[in-house]
């Protein structure tokens, strides 16, 4: 009976969480940001509370500091990033010219040499793409600022994130305790064990992943800026953020650097310096950053993260990608506990005895 009620409870818990995610889609972005901030900073709040400082005051002070830092970033950094992103988009026509005038003819010659089919025209492959590059670049530039949905999402993010953050930081422990009060008494020990394991894994993964991404978002732009790459800040930040998926920063960074170099007709010296800068960051990441940080904060296997990003991204879009790593951590803990429960069951033991 206990096992049956436990299964029903966990199933209902999962379904309610899924329904909340679907129905609160319009504010899911601010909620995710606010929850992650409150979740990661809660141990510091508890430490300060034990020192006699009121939690409401800590929450308000933290919110003010984060708001000031965000406004400074918007005022100083975002205009530069936005300008460089526009510069990247404007390079699209030049990239098309490079493909048609240089890369495709070389591929055509290579295929003709290998197969003997000299009549095969690789350039025709480009015509199969339902994209007018010039129109795409112009449309992207105009719609980034003009899209009603884009502006609405930004306004919702700006308005609701501080609001949610304050109340989640202030009442985090109260919400935690209220949820635990709803758990049936007979399955509460199992639920507490599950939540504690998820908390340990999730906190370590989020901290490790956040530190790695923030570090790379500083190193990539700095290295590429020193190397002299045009739009280095935009390329570097996009490359660092791509690390949300393991190894994706290598693919994204390599493509963006190649894209900028060929569209600017870069000389051999610039190509060499940019390549060295990119490889230097990769070496620092591979030898020091990831081993030290993710060694300290126990992470997830890269293949599990990649699979989670692909699946949740396909199901829930952008927010699915954001939630992929935390959900992968929860899934790993759930699977571990299911295997443990299975090995302790009479079904498993009787099967081995028989």
TrEMBL record:
Biological process (GO), any one: transmembrane transport
Cellular component, GO annotation: plasma membrane
Transmembrane segments: 7-24, 60-82, 150-169, 211-238, 244-263, 270-289, 304-330
Keyword Cell membrane found: yes
InterPro entries: AI-2E-like (IPR002549)
Membrane topology listed for this record: Multi-pass membrane protein
Main localisation: membrane
Subcellular location: Cell membrane
Keywords: Cell membrane, Membrane, Transmembrane, Transmembrane helix, Transport
Family: Belongs to the autoinducer-2 exporter (AI-2E) (TC 2.A.86) family.
Protein name: AI-2E family transporter
Species assigned in the record: Silvanigrella paludirubra
Phylogenetic lineage: Bacteria, Pseudomonadati, Bdellovibrionota, Oligoflexia, Silvanigrellales
